[in-house]
Amino acid sequence: MNRINNQLALTPDMQRMNDAPAGATVSLARSDSPTCVGIRGINKFFGTTQVLSDVSLEVCQGEVVVICGPSGSGKSTLIRCVNQLEPIQSGEISVFGNTIDRSKKGLISLRTRVGMVFQSFNLYPHMTALENVALAPMKVRGMKRAEAEELGKALLARVGLAHKAGAHPAFLSGGQQQRVAIARALAMQPDVMLFDEPTSALDPEMIQEVLDVIVSLANDGMTMMIVTHEMNFARRVADRVVFMDAGKILEVAAPEQFFTAPREERAQQFLSKILSH
Amino acid sequence: MMIILQNLHFLLFGAYPDGQLGGLALTVLLSLIVGIGSLAVGLLVATLSMSSSLGVRTVSQTIPAIIRSLPSLVFLFWLYFLLPAITHIDLSPLTSSAIALSIYQGAFIAEDIRGGLNSVPKGHIEAGNATGLSTTQIFWHIRLPQAVRATIPALANRYINLFLYTSTASVVGVMEFTRTSTLVSNRVLVHPLEVFGFAALVYFVFCYGIAALARRLERRWDWSPKVTRARAAA
After folding, report:
1. In whole angstroms, what is the distance from residue A55 CA to residue A173 CA?
2. A96 — alpha (psi -120 to 50), left (phi > 0) or beta?
3. Residue B102: CB atoms within 10 Å
4. Which one of A72, A170, A222, B137 has the fewest beta carbons within 10 angstroms of its own beta carbon?
């Protein structure tokens, strides 16, 4: 995180906000717990259909976990449960050792520490790229417009789009939009980033530029949970690979082991189909 | 033609300045008042219908549904006789028409606004949630600006309807444009075609104006990629 801050060249005010103790208006305090995200025995139903069965996973600070598996296996649902875009019916999710509290304040404080990037970008079309990025810092952290725009410009430069700060999403390609979406999620200076199939909606030509940004974030030590079908990328960036099917975690392994010799038969089937093209 | 010109002042302004304002001026004034009033009512009802309390939601959806099932004339009459009876205040025909029509049109506008708000892609709301914005902040900064585009056609439709139905206020004695046209025609007796032809023309001009303005605003506040790019190229 500090390395990202240095790269962003924060103004003294922003640095002060970063150093503020927990409980100040800007809470960027970091827990000393090595576990960033703890998922324990969660079950989730959509109506009567069970989409997650007794799922448990621990993600350590600075770790990159890639979650893969066939469609409908519950991968996206799992990470959406982490920032409470989906409620769970049983089990426990904790971020930095604090069990998630579903009150309004609790949710907001959770979501300021967990950033999310969506498959369909979800940029606000009526705002420019810079305004998209600066909105949450201004409204949630109460930053002044000038500061938020400074931060926004720095982040857009980080993802290689400084020259597009004044453009509306309609004028950006898919890859550019997704990079702006990444900058927007980074604007809240989260401790965990969640990626829900970030390149699945992109033209093949634009996938690489987005993956490069994600890899550079990983190199800076960001804790990440990534749902993706891009297996080569997963191999490059993952510290651990989690394979899911039908709402259950079937296998967790280091990427080298997973991609060369997966233990589970279902995983072997999946990989043989996916890696053939 | 001459008939129109001879009676023009009465048609347009009623008895003003010797008496109350009437004619076209009153129609326009009443429409403006009802336009603002019904928008306020519509926004209120739409907000209530999204409340977290089931009771508030049910009431705010049932009552407008009932109102929407009544003819505006019946509702107007009913309120005209009902309001003084319950509040024991004597309201002028103009005031009670303004109130009745505002509520009536507001019930329709509420549905239009709800539809517009629901048309905003859920993904944008989720993105707002994911960055920690509160529901109110999401409503003002993300939902409303995008909902406007979807609401305008329905809203324009409503306002045209509203403008035309101010003529129903004539049955409770408001001296608006339809009424003054009728009075002129009754006095002159032999030129109904000209008088009502003129009235129709005037109504048409205003309603067409509303529709044209709506089309302009639709293009201006449309944030879909195609239209945004077309707007910049123009």
Report:
1. 37
2. left
3. 22
4. A72
SS3 B154: helix
Contact B179, B170 (CB under 8 A): yes
Q: How many CB pairs (< 8 A) connect A and B?
A: 78
Sign of torsion, CA A247 A192 A229 A168?
Answer: positive
Q: B88-126 pLDDT, tens per residue?
A: 777 788 888 999 999 999 999 999 999 999 999 999 999
Name A176's Cβ contacts closer than 8 Å, sequence gap at least 6.
A161, A164, A206
- Residue the block writes with tokens 């079908």: A229
Asked if the Cβ–Cβ distance from B141 to A139 is below 8 Å, we say: yes
Q: Which residues of A touch B132 (CB under 8 A)?
A: 108-109, 111-112, 136, 140, 188
What ipTM score was computed for the predicted complex, to two decimals?
0.80
Which phi and psi angles does A276 have, rounded to 5°? -75, -20
Instruction: Residue B232: list chain A partners with CB under 8 A.
Output: 171
Whole-structure pTM value = 0.80
Nearest CA in chain A to B142: A124
**Nearest CB partner across the interface for B137, out of A85, A120, A139:** A139
- Cα Rg, chain A, nearest whole Å: 19
Q: How far is A115 from chain B (nearest CA, A)?
A: 7
Specify the 3-state DSSP secondary structure of A51.
strand
Contacts of B225 (CB under 8 A, 6+ apart): A125, A169, A170
Evaluate whether A40 touches A56 at the Cβ level (below 8 Å): yes
Question: CB B224 to CB A170 under 8 A?
Answer: yes
Closest chain B residue to the Cα of A133, Cα to Cα: B131
* Probe site for chain A from B119, B131, B221, B224 (most A CB atoms < 10 A): B131
CA dihedral B122, B127, B128, B133 (to 10 degrees): 130
Helix/strand/coil for B158 = helix
Looking at residue A277, its amino acid is: H
How distant, in Å, are the alpha carbons of A19, A217, A255 from that of A220? 19, 5, 19
Residues in chain A within 8 Å Cβ distance of B141? 124, 135, 139
